[in-house]
Every structure is written in C-alpha cells, then in structure tokens.
Task: structure prediction
Amino acid sequence: QKEVEQDPGPLSVPEGAIVSLNCTYSNSAFQYFMWYRQYSRKGPELLMYTYSSGNKEDGRFTAQVDKSSKYISLFIRDSQPSDSATYLCAMSFIQGAQKLVFGQGTRLTINP
Amino acid sequence: GAVVSQHPSWVICKSGTSVKIECRSLDFQATTMFWYRQFPKQSLMLMATSNEGSKATYEQGVEKDKFLINHASLTLSTLTVTSAHPEDSSFYICSARSGQGAAGSPLHFGNGTRLTVT
Result:
C-alpha cells in the first residue's frame, strides 16, 4: 500500500464547474499537507499549505483536511481553462525527516 | 514569494558525457535542498537531500557516484549526472524550503531540467 494514494485521473470537466480533488494517506503522523499545481514541463507550484485538520480558503481554492479519516481534498470553484494542469498532493511529518511524500498527481482538464 | 531558479531548463547530451544542473534559491537562504526526478505522467521521486557544507543524503537505490551533489553555499546546489546514459533521460527538479528550513515549512520548486541523453 502506498503511503499516499491519489487518483491519477484524467479528470475532465466543463468551465465553471466545481472540481474536487482528493488524496488518502495511511500514516497518521503526517501533520503538514500541501497541494501543488504542475503545468506540463514545469516544476510544481505551491497552491495551498495547511497544518493539521480543518479548512483553508484562498480565492477559488479551498483545501480541506480530515485527519480522522486520513483524507485531504482540494476544491476549485468556478474552474477556468487555465486551471488545466496536474495537481499533486503532498504531506510531511511535524518532526524528523523533512521530506515530502507526494501523491501520484491528478491530471485535470477544464473544457471551455 | 520564495523563488527557486534552476538552470538549464533543458539539455541534450551524448551518452557517456556528464551534465551539471544548478539550483539557486533567489530570495532566501536554504541550508537544505532536495533533488527530485520525475518520469512522464508519474509523480516526483526524491533522489537526494543536499545539505550545505556537508555530504548529501541519498535515497535508497540512487547511485551517489552517478548523481554527484554539491551544496557549496546557502543559495546554490548542483547535481551532476556523470557518464550519462539514455536511461538517465528524465525531468530533474530541485526544491528548497523557505522559513529557514523549519520542519513543515513550504517546499518551493524550480522549473525543472529536462535531460535527454542520446
């Protein structure tokens, strides 16, 4: 079993739709949770960064963490064609190794 | 926000030659940088952790003699792929933590280097 599971998609939705991206994880020691957006042939760009359970909103993006279920989500409202990219979830421990553990990434296409 | 610059963005080299990739933190100091490798349509795989002023820490299965890492200053880490072979062709991405490297602080990535070995 992978430490972090993410549906690779591809996911295709019409412009303006609400997009829900999800990751599950197995290690309850994860405390920091991130979402990255990666355009083709570019490095990942940090979108959202959260600590422990709860919600965080930034513009059209909302990150949600449910530690009891070991489940994190990223919601994109009013999706735009420019949101088309691969979205990677990542997480790390509060102490010890500073490495990030990534999900496989979900390829998202927003159709105009 | 924190910026990580990576150079070159792409490189083509002949089999048997060596290639050096640079990673710079432009507006913050990074005592630790990370080197990742990404194959098409796959997630990032951590290769090694680069520590300023000391030896890099390599992940299991990564050949340290093939992937030489030097972290000579707080803003620069280099990855040298020695005696490159076609199977080394990949997308190499470096990253660094802002927030003075505190555990859990965000990781920022460079734009990657696409290496093609012919």
